[in-house]
Hints:
It contains 21 helices and ten strands. By secondary structure, it is α/β, with parallel strands linked by helices. It has four domains: 16-111, no CATH class; 120-232, no CATH class; 241-326, Orthogonal Bundle (434 Repressor (Amino-terminal Domain)), CATH 1.10.260.40; 333-550, P-loop containing nucleotide triphosphate hydrolases (Rossmann fold, 3-Layer(aba) Sandwich), CATH 3.40.50. Helices cover 48% and strands 8% of the residues. The strands form two sheets. The chain has an eight-stranded mixed sheet, sandwiched between helices. A two-stranded antiparallel sheet has the order 1-2. The longest helix is centred in the N-terminal third of the chain and has 26 residues, at 161-186.
Amino acid sequence: MAAAQSWKKPNLANQPFLKKLNDELHDLRLDAGLLSARTIRNRIGKDEEGYWIVNHQAVLDIFQKPELPAWERLEIIVTALAEAARRNDIDGEAARFKELWTQAATETITQAPVRPSIDSTDSSSNDEERGSDETFDDLFMQDIGDASQAPTDSTDTPNSPDHIAAEQFNHAEESLKGLIINAAQALWHDKDALRVFLGVVRRSKGFANMANAIEEQRPANATFYGVKSREFEVKPSPARLELIRLRNAIDAHRLKWKWSFTSMEERTGVSADAWIHWYIHDELPKREALVAFSHAAHLMPEDHILLLGLWDAAHDALERQKRSDIIPSRISFDEAWAMRDQAASKLWALAGVGDDGLTVYGPDLALGIAPAFVVAGPTGSGRSTALVNISRSLLKVGTRVVLAAPRPSPLRELADRDGVVACFVGDDIGHDEFKETLSTASSEEPIVVVMDDAEILGKCDARRLLSDVLRRGFDKGVALVLGREEDDLQSSSYWLHEVQKAHRGLLLSPQTQNAGDLIGLKIGSSITSSPVMPGRGWLHLGDGRILAVTVPY
């Protein structure tokens, strides 16, 4: 077995942004275990026609050539390496590289001529290296190079710089247009062949360069391009993860029957264009189309139910996003408190206002699997404000509260309120002192411990008592509400990890899908948000549903 090798980096001294992009890419490959080009190619896989999506030479080129790679190709390589490196946030890693790529692209545009000349010497020297792995991209770019050398009828001086630049750009562009238009016209009535052709074109470095160059001059024509250049980039669907699962399930049956999209049209009555559109644009197919597909594929009852279940999951994710978009942006605590259920128990706590702006939600700490509730979110998400609301709502009905705020927090401002038994402000809580504080708690006169920045107190002296609250708090009349950063999952001490078993909590502007583990619930990409939106969150009360809420101020 060959040893892993580090690849030579290109000389990019005059292009600092491109160098930064290349360095980060090499670092990502290092974290992934210095995968070979063929291993990266294999992880990316083949398309439906059995062709490698990216060949190993193209992988090497992106790492070693002093050129800006096409984003579409870079994205799938970054995704494959991030998965191999076991990064927690694959989409976040791709977004980080997209920002680096955008900076490098801007740098390249400002430094480069309209169309760089093609060095025939370099092309010939690469022929031996490429061998039988020469791809459509290589031939495509070669055609463009040949076209750029074609004679012209212009009366300009043949060797003038303006003449040469215009000749190179225009002939390359028109040659590429002609190739695409002629092929598309020939394949127009064969949708499957046209789809395969456009799929190859979409990965073409030459086409991406042309589309982006034209975009700088005039609005592009989406019906002509049929691909995603910068002009046609759209934000990923908020239900992208759920849609991918649904698509994979459909594909498993479609490939089993060896159906093309045209075949699916014949068997389901749903146009091939509609199926292709749903695939390309990350959109949810109509439920009726899915039912028709299920009948056409003669699915077993369990497979039929699974398919519709996946559709429901994607539909719910999209609906959640819609509800999140319409929840009130601001509401005061007093307004929210006026909407509460007057018959709620003394251990009900106000967490947020729902999408209709008329319903308040929160946990009843006297019920559930464990007497605990988690408020998690990144800095600036409104975590402390949510904890203050919970404390105020408990104090208003006469429930006693113990506060813990090892860092400066608005919780400390409640220390003098009636009903606050104690307020711990250090980075440790003594065992005996904490035991004494909770000694008067009972089922009739409960005490709720509200703690901010709980990760700091994970190993405090009172950790055994806190763990005991999670196991026997119902009997002793003690409950626990804690706030914590969402990115500290791995370092949780035993009692902090036990809080997750309560399976309820409030996630404020979650940045990663792993944040769902803090409230005992798996979440999809439709729940995560970037940038941080203070006071906007997702509430889980232990019933499997997740609600979009606004935190009162």
